[in-house]
Every structure is written in C-alpha cells, then in structure tokens.
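retry 2 of 3: previous attempt timed out while embedding NAP. Reduced batch size to 1 and resubmitted. Inputs unchanged:
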Amino acid sequence: MAAMDGVPAEEIRNMKVDGKDEDRVGRDGLPQPVVVLGATGGTGQSIVRRLAAMGVRPRVVCRHPEEAQAVFKDAVDVVAGDVTDPPGLCRAVAGAAAVIDTVGVRPGRAKEALIRAVEYDGTVNLLQVLHDDGFTGRLLYMSALGTTRWSPSAMALNLFKGNTLKWRRRAEEAIRRSGLDYTIVRAGVLTNEPGGRWPILITQRRLRMSLRHRISRDDVAEVILLALAHPAAGRTTFDVVWHPTSEPFDAMFERLQPDRPAS
Ligand SMILES: NC(=O)c1ccc[n+]([C@@H]2O[C@H](COP(=O)([O-])OP(=O)(O)OC[C@H]3O[C@@H](n4cnc5c(N)ncnc54)[C@H](OP(=O)(O)O)[C@@H]3O)[C@@H](O)[C@H]2O)c1
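retry 2 succeeded.
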C-alpha cells in the first residue's frame, strides 16, 4: 500500500507525538479515512492520539458515542457501532480506506459466550461487512501472545476469561482466510507505561504468553501504526514485546514472512 511509502519506519518512530513534527509525516501518508474500532480502550486511545499528531482525523467506531466525543473532542469523527451488530457496523465502516481493530472484552472475568460474541463473532462480522463494502485497504488486528502456544499463563487466562485465546486464534484464522490485506499484531502482556522507554521486538518466533513478555499499550499503538504503513507487514502475523534484542523497525519488518494461506 502507498501509506507513508518512502518514509523509513525508524524516522517515523523518532518523531515526537506532541504534534511538533506532524508535517514530517504529512496528511498525505495514510489512506483515509482510517477507521478505529476499540478507540476508547487503552491502546485505541494512544492510536487516536498518535493519528491526531500526524494530522490524521480518524473515524472512531464505538458503542457509546457521547463518551468517545467527550474523550477525543474534535480530533475524530465519532460513529456508533458495535461489532456484535452487523447492520450498524456496516454503516460505521462504510468507505474505510484502512481499519484498525483493537476491540476486546474489557479486562476481568468473562463468560465464554461474551468472549465468543465479541472477539470471534465480532471479528467475523467485521470481515463480512468489509468484504460487502468492497474494502481494499489493510486491516490491522490486535491479538495476543499465546493464541497458538500453550503456557501456564495462557491456560490461566483462558480459565479466567472465557477461553479468550482460543477465540482469538479462531478470529486470526478467519482473518487469514478472508482474502483481505491484513496485519495481525500479537501483543505481550499490556502495561500502561508511556511508550518509548524500552526496546521493542517484532518477531515471528511465537513467544509464550508470560509476565516476562510485556509491552505498553502506547508502544503497541506505535507498532500498529507503523505496520499499517509498511509494505512488508501485509498478510503477516507477528508478536510484539519489550526485549533487549530489538533492532531498527525497518529491519524487523523486512524480515517478516507472509503467513501461509489459512495458517
Ligand atoms: N490485557 C492484556 O495484557 C492484553 C494483551 C494482548 C492483547 N490484549 C487485547 O488487546 C486489545 C486492546 O487491549 P486494551 O487493553 O487496549 O483494550 P481495552 O482497554 O480493554 O478496550 C477494549 C475496547 O474494545 C471495545 N469494545 C468492547 N466490546 C465491544 C463491542 N461489542 N463493539 C465494539 N467495541 C467494543 C471497548 O469499548 P467500550 O469503551 O464500549 O467498552 C474498548 O474500546 C483487546 O482486545 C485486548 O483483549 C490484551
């Protein structure tokens, strides 16, 4: 995709997100409108803040528009939408040029029926409405470590939160089968620290979910926006965590291998 082509990822990473350097990224970089689902969540809010600093006004799809408007003021276009309601979702994402999906059941114990409805059926609903709308952009999907690798932490999370990693894995599979351009970003255990403090590793080694593999929501937001723009991130799935063996982003993106179909 043409998004931010020609701007090395490392250069984008080094830009401030307080708005001073917004002209270096430019309004012409990302295909627009960029539609963000899950924008009222921790990672979603960081994504919106970063887009605003880049001069991009995203369309925010959320269940409670008045709350989103209060948070984001005039920086976004707010549209009501719920991933469990396909007709409303259809109207909300119509005409999207790029879609970022960080939707998930809020932290805490949850029944499997809710997890399935939001994290699997909701993703399938999104894929269907994008397909019906003729969407040709890239879908950035936020997932989690542990969808395909067992660990004690993953097992504990599944017991506590309605088999969330199992339904995420199935959602990932549906995305890979969809025929859309996509990037699946599997984040480590999330923290609320400000971004930019620790080196970030992007890898396809399939890390175990564990408290050793953490990353802040703010840093995930940065990686999601870089992946949205990077040609080498298309049709890939990768893990993202803090790790001392980090490298420049461009090098890590260039090493990504596209997923095997339906893997
Ligand atoms: N916690 C972790 O360590 C971890 C690790 C890796 C990945 N993840 C996943 O990464 C994603 C982002 O995490 P986060 O902590 O930044 O998110 P978060 O703060 O839990 O926010 C979740 C977002 O999903 C939205 N949402 C929930 N149900 C929805 C529905 N039916 N339709 C539309 N939107 C809906 C929420 O909207 P409302 O404002 O309406 O509630 C909120 O904006 C989540 O999917 C999470 O499961 C979490």
